[in-house]
């Protein structure tokens, strides 16, 4: 599983870097996006708190409503197929947070805006889940999360969104591994 994670998210990060070059995004502006208002330690703290609160709320929503049950079953099957352990889930969550935010907020949001970045984020995550109610609800959740990550990037900086994304993914994946066997 580690090789798959590294290759896939390495390719996503390489795509983001390539788009920076192709779209002529000035590196000094991109660097300001990274270090925006808050210093890196402050962004990490904010991202960890926001991600922790959001992750806990999402897990509680899953437990209390059964929403996304079929989607969670698909994710669990995927994790089982890859024989995922705790370390690989941490790597998956961290890699997703870094590479996806680099692409969607660091490049797409910067170039075309939050709405386009959130739509792309939804296409990458939610749309493949289907057009039934749970798939549409999941797509709406992913779209709102994308707008939230864009807001974090603009308010505190890209690192805060990367950390929040990674913490949410880790908490939800850990929850799936523990409770959906």
Detailed description of the structure:
This protein is an all-alpha fold. It has one domain. 85% of the residues lie in helices and 0% in strands. It contains eight helices and no strands. It has helices spanning 2-22, 27-35, 40-65, 69-81, 86-112, 114-125, 133-155, 158-179. Helix 5 packs antiparallel against helix 6. The radius of gyration is 16 Å and the shape is globular. The relative contact order is 0.20. The mean pLDDT is 87.
Provide tags for this entry:
single chain; globular; 8 helices; 85% helix; mainly alpha; 181 residues
Number of domains: 1
Q: Please, how many helices?
A: 8
The general outline is globular
Major sheet summary line: none
Strand content: under 5%
Radius of gyration equals 16 Å
Number of strands: 0
Overall pLDDT score:
87
Q: What is the H/E order?
A: HHHHHHHH
Percent of residues in helical segments? over 70%
Instruction: Outline the low-pLDDT stretches.
Output: none
N-to-C CA distance: 19 Å
Helix-strand makeup class: mainly alpha
Write the SSE topology.
Elements lengths: L1 H21 L4 H9 L4 H26 L3 H13 L4 H27 L1 H12 L7 H23 L2 H22 L2
Helix pairs in contact: 1-5, 3-8, 5-6, 5-7, 5-8, 6-7, 7-8
């Amino acid at each position: 599983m580690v090789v798959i994670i590294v290759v896939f998210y390495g390719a996503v990060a390489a795509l983001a870097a390539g788009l920076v070059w192709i779209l002529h995004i000035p590196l000094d502006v991109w660097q300001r996006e990274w270090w925006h208002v808050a210093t890196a330690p402050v962004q990490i703290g904010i991202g960890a708190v926001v991600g922790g609160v959001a992750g806990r709320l999402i897990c509680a929503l899953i437990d209390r409503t059964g929403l996304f049950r079929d989607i969670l079953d698909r994710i669990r099957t995927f994790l089982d197929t890859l024989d995922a352990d705790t370390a690989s889930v941490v790597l998956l969550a961290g890699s997703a947070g870094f590479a996806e935010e680099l692409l969607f907020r660091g490049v797409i949001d910067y170039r075309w805006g939050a709405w386009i970045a959130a739509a792309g984020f939804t296409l990458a995550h939610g749309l493949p889940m289907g057009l039934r109610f749970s798939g549409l609800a999941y797509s709406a959740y992913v779209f709102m999360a994308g707008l939230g990550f864009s807001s974090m990037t603009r308010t505190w900086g890209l690192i805060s969104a990367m950390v929040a994304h990674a913490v949410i993914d880790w908490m939800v994946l850990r929850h799936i591994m523990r409770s959906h066997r």
